[in-house]
Design a protein that fits this description.
six-stranded mixed sheet, 24 strands, Jelly Rolls
Length: 369
């Protein structure tokens, strides 16, 4: 038995190295992005460093969160266009209770997103995937079907843009109306190195007609490398002592670490960071380092702003805030926090009510926040 121990140890050592690379290999998809990010709110915008972005082809402008009035659910769309198209989302599904898109002439045969090109031949719907670190694209599968009836067909294609070079992964393919779903698998050109700034583009055009181009599409990419931050954290703010939440959505991540002004936050190791009570101490810049076995990527910075002067949290900075704070400070000075009847007079979040809180509040009130 003693002679076998070194062999067992050596085998174990080799096996322990395998999961590290396994954590480098992952998939990201159009449907998973929608499900994890969630339905956009009205007026929502997309961060320019999101790993997945939805655009119109004519101006390369990002789509925004709009009410898709034909289905009663929000989508990513173009506010200046008739019927808001191009539209991407909501979810088509053949699973009971999960379908969000009611505009179809036959039942969807798989789960994907409504992918509706624009109302002229020159406006296509684009889903763009751009990594924050160098990855290897090892596979791409596109499921697609046309659920409309008036338009004879739509056309889809998948390609990679690297500077001035374009690599076609799936050539322009006609998707006839109400025909059986197609599964298009990229074969030529893979594996392919995708660097920051490169773009993987799924494009759909209307095939010459803007009528009922109700394409159901789901693109799945297989990647090898550091994680892809699908959705970047966004700036947040609020009145003193109100809660705030920061969120990052990543594909291929095995761990998370949030930073505040460049310093690690203890126990902040999930994709969501909750700030229970905003104060001057919580204000600043936040980032999230997302890691897997191949390396790390750091999110775009998000700013957290605290309006100390809006002491009563009614949305307006006025004399009522001043009076409420003075009353609370007078009764709480030199007391441990939290303390106060209108709010918590510890506006700087140092767990004690003192002259520093008074000075911070007066400074904020003097500037209007």
């Amino acid at each position: 038995m003693k002679r076998e121990t070194p062999i067992i140890a050596a085998v174990a050592s080799v096996l322990l190295t395998l999961p590290a690379h396994a954590q480098c290999v992952y998939q990201t998809s159009l449907l998973d992005t929608w499900d994890r990010v969630g339905t956009p709110t009205l007026g929502a915008t997309q961060h320019p460093q999101n790993g997945w972005r939805f655009q119109r082809s004519d101006t390369a402008a990002d789509l925004v969160g709009l009410l898709n009035f034909s289905v009663g659910t929000n989508s990513w769309g173009a506010p200046d266009q008739a019927f808001l198209i191009p539209l991407i989302g909501p979810r088509y599904s053949n699973i009971s209770g999960r379908n969000q898109a009611l505009n179809f002439r036959r039942t969807p045969s798989f789960e994907g997103l409504l992918f509706h090109p624009g109302n002229t031949a020159s406006i296509d719907a684009h889903a763009i995937i751009s990594p924050q670190a160098t990855v290897t694209l090892t596979g791409a599968t596109l499921e697609v079907e046309h659920l409309g009836n008036s338009s004879a067909n739509a056309i889809v294609r998948l390609y990679v843009v690297k500077g001035t070079t374009t690599t076609v992964l799936v050539p322009a393919t006609t998707v006839p109306k109400l025909a059986p779903a197609q599964t298009l698998v990229a074969s030529a050109g893979l594996p392919l190195t995708i660097d920051p700034g490169d773009q993987i583009v799924l494009a759909a055009d209307n095939g010459g007609s803007a009528l009922e181009d109700w394409v159901n599409a789901n693109l799945t990419l297989s990647l090898d490398g550091p994680p892809l931050i699908v959705w970047q954290p966004r700036d947040v703010g609020g009145c003193v002592n109100s809660p705030a939440t920061l969120r990052v959505v990543a594909a291929g991540a095995s761990s998370y670490q949030w930073l505040h002004n460049g310093e690690e936050i203890e126990d902040a190791t999930s994709s969501t960071l909750s700030i229970p009570a905003l104060s001057s101490a919580t204000a600043g810049t936040y980032e999230c380092v997302v890691t897997n076995g191949c390396g790390s990527v750091t999110s775009a910075p998000a700013t957290v702003r605290t309006c100390l002067a809006n002491y009563n949290c009614d949305g307006d900075v006025d004399v009522l805030d001043f009076l409420d704070f003075i009353d609370d400070f007078a009764s709480c000075e030199n007391a441990p926090a939290p303390c106060g009847s209108a709010s918590n007079a510890d506006v700087n979040g140092d767990t004690f009510v003192d002259i520093l809180d008074f000075l911070d509040f007066i400074d904020s009130f003097g500037t209007g926040c």
